[in-house]
Amino acid sequence: MPGKPETSNPDARSSPRLSRSFYRRNPVAVARGLLGHRLVSQIGDARTSGLIVETEAYLGIPDKGAHTYGGRRTPRSETMWGDGGYAYVYFVYGMHHCFNVVAGRAGNPVAVLIRALEPCASEAGSGSEPSNQNLDVLFARREKAKRFTDLCSGPSKLCQALNITRDQDGEDLIEGDLLFIERARSHSLPQGSIVAGPRIGIAYAEEWQHEPLRFFLEGNPHVS
DNA sequence: AGAGTGATCATG
DNA sequence: ATGATCACTCTC
Questions:
Q1: Does the structure show a pLDDT above 70 at A105?
Q2: So what's the pLDDT on residue A184?
Q3: Which fold has domain A20-217?
Q4: Which of A159, A134, A165, A130 is nearest to A148 (CA)?
Q5: CA A198, A199, A204, A205 torsion-angle sign
Q6: How far apart are CA A165 and CA A90, in angstroms?
Q7: Residue A111 pLDDT
Q8: Which chain B positions come under 7 Å from a protein C-beta?
Q9: A156 nearest nucleotide via C1' and CA
Q10: How far is Cα A101 from Cα A205, in angstroms, rounded to an integer?
């Protein structure tokens, strides 16, 4: 592989990433399984991150809410058709980006939308820097955010906060350097705290709009 | 509850 | 080429 920099093991001092096989499952399992883990961005000149607290599963060809409904395969959604564990980023409403992780395997165009993060002041590691830095950067990038809970409480808010754009479409979440998901250290996530409900913003999806494919941590203030 | 914003896609 | 749409956010 040409051009792979020598420094490409950011896991040496941090938590391991979720593996390819984690993503190569059905999107509901991935959407639920993602809750509580840490999305990390090294896009731009800072490392920013947050714990995933809200997700939505998109079920592909049969799903009237999905970009790939009916087998549609367009330039925008091309990465959804590929293998699991890659970023699918799209642009909507003329100003916003949304970040998904591709689930399943190549040929099955399913994905999970990341809808909200809980930004953390402390990066679990003990010896790291005085990491208000994470919050400082998030507030700087999210100019309109007044409160802590305005930072990453929506799919496009979190993209703005972590600097995610279409440039990241197709990024490899397992091998790439810019964007990845770290396994939570003490992943003692109580299964009972996961709640399901209908997905947001897909009124056009007819009967599919009511399917309980949105998952979030009950009572978390960062949920959108 | 309405405006903003322009890429994207299905038409033709 | 053209027009409708949009997995949203902000402000009123």
A1: yes
A2: 87
A3: 3-methyladenine DNA Glycosylase; Chain A (3.10.300)
A4: A134
A5: negative
A6: 8
A7: 98
A8: 4-10
A9: C8
A10: 21
pLDDT category at A9 given cuts 50, 70, 90 is low
Delimit the domains of chain A by residue range: 20-217
User: H or E stretch including A112?
Assistant: strand A110-119
User: Looking at this protein, which amino acid is placed at residue A199?
Assistant: R
* A92 strand B contact, CB < 7 Å: yes
Could you read off the pLDDT of A51-86 as tens digits, one per residue? 999 999 999 999 999 999 999 999 999 999 999 999
| CA–C1' A35–C9 (A) | 23
- Six-digit token pair at A60? 């592909």
A25's tokens = 């499952």
Alpha-carbon span A53 to A155, nearest angstrom: 11
Q: Mean pLDDT of all residues in chain A?
A: 90
A178, A41 contact by CB (below 8 A): yes
Q: Which amino acid is it at A202?
A: I
By CB neighbour count within 10 A (0-12 exposed, 13-18 middle, 19+ buried), where does A82 fall? middle
Query: A114 burial class (0-12, 13-18, 19+ CB within 10 angstroms)?
Result: buried
Give the residue from A154, A174, A58 showing the smallest Cα distance to A164: A154
Residue A33: is it exposed, middle or buried by C-beta count within 10 angstroms (0-12/13-18/19+)? buried
Nucleotide nearest to A92 (CA to C1'): C6
pTM for the full predicted model: 0.91
- Per-residue pLDDT tens digits for A162-195: 999 999 999 999 999 999 999 987 655 544 599 9
